[in-house]
Write a structure and sequence with these properties.
This protein is α+β, with helices and mostly antiparallel strands and about 200 residues long. It is built from seven helices and nine strands; from the N terminus they run H-H-E-E-E-E-H-E-H-E-H-E-H-H-E-E. The protein has a five-stranded mixed beta sheet. A two-stranded antiparallel sheet has the order 1-4. A two-stranded antiparallel sheet has the order 8-9. Helix 1 packs across helix 2 and helix 3 crosses helix 4. It is elongated, with a radius of gyration of 20 Å. About 30% of the residues are buried.
């Protein structure tokens, strides 16, 4: 368990949600609403499970292979919750890394890592950094490129109401930051890059 995290108190969360909805004028005695506070408490317990997750065990079975080429894992789906308004944002994560001394991890590890980093109140920019940092530290990668392409319900349900808007964030670490040729190769693993713009599409 990570420092500062506590176990979920679902009873307390349910009471708080009941008070919250009542304060907003929701009639919890209406048909179909009676169990809503409990359902929401359980839901957010799941959505924020990453607060209590230990990522170190993901790297327990790192392999050593005879490779020094780049490795890409594309289009990993993720779902997270924006910490500003507790509305979802979701999309795909794309990862490229260069192994150090042939140290690689199974492809499924990266999907689980993205999910754990996303299951907490987040900002897309921070989530991108979190994933890149964990890969760099977890397997000692020489270079890491992480790109997140997402839709933010904060932008479509409130405020600007900019329907269909996508946000893209990227982080380069290690050799990809230091060597522009290596960085370009990493981007090419994810698709063409024209005029400095990444051409990465959501499914």
């Amino acid at each position: 368990m990570e420092e500062g995290c506590t176990e979920v108190d679902l009873s307390r969360a349910e009471r708080a949600m009941r008070e919250f909805l009542t304060a907003l004028g929701v009639d919890l005695m209406a048909r179909g609403m009676e169990e809503t506070p409990a359902r929401v408490a359980h839901l957010y317990g799941e959505l924020f499970a990453g607060l209590r997750a230990d990522t170190s065990e993901l790297w327990a079975d790192v392999l050593t292979e005879n490779t020094d080429g780049l490795i890409a894992v594309r289009a990993i789906p993720f779902y997270s919750v924006c910490e500003h308004h507790l509305l979802p944002f979701f999309g795909t994560a794309h990862i490229v890394y260069r192994p150090h001394a042939g140290r690689v991890a199974g492809f499924g590890v990266f999907a689980r890592l993205v999910a754990r980093m996303a299951q907490r109140p987040q900002l897309q920019e921070r989530l991108t950094e979190d994933i890149a940092r964990e890969i760099e530290q977890g397997i000692g990668a020489d270079g890491v490129l992480v790109v997140l392409d997402a839709r933010q319900l904060c932008m479509t349900m409130r405020g600007a109401r900019a329907h269909g808007t996508r946000t893209t964030t990227s982080v380069c670490r290690g050799i990809f930051r230091e060597d522009k040729t290596m960085e370009l190769q990493a981007w090419q693993m994810l698709g063409e890059r024209n005029n400095g713009e990444e051409n990465i599409s959501l499914p």
